Structure prediction request, 136 residues.
Amino acid sequence: MVQFTNFIYSIVNTVAPFMTGTVAIYIVAFSLVVFIYDIFFGDGSIFEWFCYIMIGLALAGLFVYILALFLSPIYEKEQDWRNWAKEHCKVIEKREGATTTGVGISLKGQAGVFLGGEPDQTGYLCDDGVTYWKNE
Prediction:
């Protein structure tokens, strides 16, 4: 979950500056070109399809923005813990994650492939006397 949250947060931080400037200008310019072309050479269907595409892109962008908005507190909480751990903890062990696969028979008697796994983990010994294990 943390990796997915970091991924979404990095997308928003990367895309946001472009959306306020350059990309917005390109979208408006392209829309104007399509609109003018459709007025002089078309029957209105190109602009109609273009509007549907732009509405779809706007809804997709809104979805990503809302997703990032809801996931950003999780990222901030994790980042706060990491900052606290830098000052109060030391890394004592790192465990490599593993993927487990197998072939067997299920409880219903059917043959199946079984998959499982666990993420990498880091052990922190902190000055409060507690050892914390965090998934990476």
